[in-house]
Design brief:
Layout: E1 15-19, E2 23-24, E3 30-31, E4 34-41, E5 51-55, E6 82-83, E7 88-89, E8 94-98, H1 130-143, E9 151-155, H2 157-168, E10 175-179, H3 187-201, H4 219-233, H5 236-242, H6 261-274, H7 279-291, H8 302-305, E11 312-318, H9 326-338, E12 343-348, H10 362-379
Parallel strand pairs: 5-8, 5-9, 6-7, 9-10, 10-11, 11-12
Antiparallel strand pairs: 1-4, 2-3, 4-8
Helix pairs in contact: 1-2, 3-4, 3-7, 4-6
Length: 381
């Protein structure tokens, strides 16, 4: 538990920023007001130069490290990597992690009450983009009186936010660390997201996105979406090593209930996801993934899209990640090189798949620790 682990940030109290003024969104709509929930770990130095922003992936939130109570059985989603002496060292950095707009864990989203109607936003919550998230995150930066992030770090969808930060606010981050990401989704990835969305919206309990008012949850649809997504996060090798063709009861039953261990695992993952996530949020997050394409505005020229960048980049990929394969990371690296930017690259040999960015393989940890050590030195910590 938190109190017994010297490398834990311990017990953490979430904080909230209320933004009273309107914010225009890329979709053409406006949020009149909203809240951002966030957590901080470590101490901001006197020069306010050691702040690091963590951008979360699709199912992440503000709770990246530590515990909310002594009774918590699990820490934050990136606790393996954030804490005293860890890869993202809270003895040297002031780490900020927030829940994005449209989420389900405190920041304003579909589950929130609309201030004008008193009803849940539900399907009326506007579609948000990675660019919208970065603009809202910059409001949080300003509220914390941080002139420049020492680094902005993110994996997967979080890595896309890092790229957007470097393009949109080049003077407000010194380093950009992009992990297991891509410059845009492939057609195959968009297809996976669409199947997941269709599983949700065709669930009879979805009620056009107003299921809150009916006191139900589109469990089957959200469960299927998670099962599909989880398959894409794991490599074939990892699934074969973990499950093979092992039978749950040691024999074939010649029916359509769970027989193989992998079936049982996926159903468990789907069922547990339903209890901690929101269906409307899943729709929004996957759409933000689909829409991300910083080179769209430059006619497909990613190097030109990176022209405003002043941050130094660290890009990390994993060999077993077939959803955001190393080739996609090398596209980012090549475009940065073509744009004359400073970039380091590490391709980590791995087994698990896309979810490797959440773990602590030695090559991954040592590469990031060394890079972040230099970042901390620059920040004077």
């Amino acid at each position: 538990m938190a109190a017994r682990n010297s490398q834990s940030v311990g017990l953490i109290e979430p904080q909230s920023l209320h933004v009273a003024g309107p914010m225009a969104l890329d979709c053409g709509k406006t949020l009149a007001q909203f809240d951002l929930v966030y957590e901080t770990y470590g101490t901001l130095n006197a020069a306010r130069s050691n702040a690091v922003l963590i951008c979360h992936a699709l199912s992440g939130n503000h709770h990246a490290a530590g515990y909310h109570s002594e009774e918590d059985s699990k820490p934050g989603w990136w606790d393996k990597c954030i804490g005293p002496g860890k890869m993202i060292d809270t003895d040297r950095f002031f780490v900020v992690s927030l829940a994005n707009l449209g989420g389900y864990n405190g920041s304003t989203g579909p589950h929130s009450l609309h201030p004008e109607t008193g009803r849940h936003y539900g399907p009326d919550f506007p579609v948000v983009t990675v660019g919208d998230w970065v603009r809202s995150q910059d409001l949080l930066r300003a509220s914390l009186d941080i002139e420049q992030w020492a680094a902005v770090i993110g994996g997967s969808l979080g890595g896309m936010q890092v790229m957007q930060w470097a393009i949109d606010y080049p003077d407000r981050l010194a380093h950009a660390i992009v992990i297991a990401a891509a410059p845009k989704l492939s057609a195959q990835n968009i297809a996976f997201n669409e199947i997941a969305r269709q599983a949700i919206v065709t669930d009879p309990e979805f009620h056009g996105g107003r299921y809150y008012e009916h006191g139900v949850v589109p469990r089957r649809g959200l469960m299927l979406a998670r099962m599909l997504g989880h398959i894409t996060y794991l490599s074939d090798e990892a699934m074969r090593a973990k499950f093979g063709r092992d039978l749950r009861e040691g024999r074939l039953n010649y029916g359509f209930d769970v027989e193989f261990q992998v079936e049982s695992y996926l159903r468990h993952q789907g069922a547990s996801f339903v209890d901690r996530f929101d269906a409307n949020t899943y729709l929004l997050m996957t759409k933000a993934l689909d829409y991300f394409d910083p080179a769209y505005a430059t006619g497909g020229d990613l190097a030109q899209a990176f022209a405003p960048v002043t941050a130094r980049f660290m890009v990390v990929s994993f060999t077993s990640d077939w959803r955001f394969a190393p080739e996609r990371s090398r596209e980012i690296v090549d475009a940065l090189v073509d744009a004359g930017k400073q970039v380091s690259y590490a391709e980590v040999t791995s087994d698990l798949g896309h979810d490797d960015f959440l773990l602590t393989m030695p090559h991954y940890v040592n590469s990031l620790r060394a890079y972040l050590g230099r970042v901390a030195d620059e920040a004077g910590t």
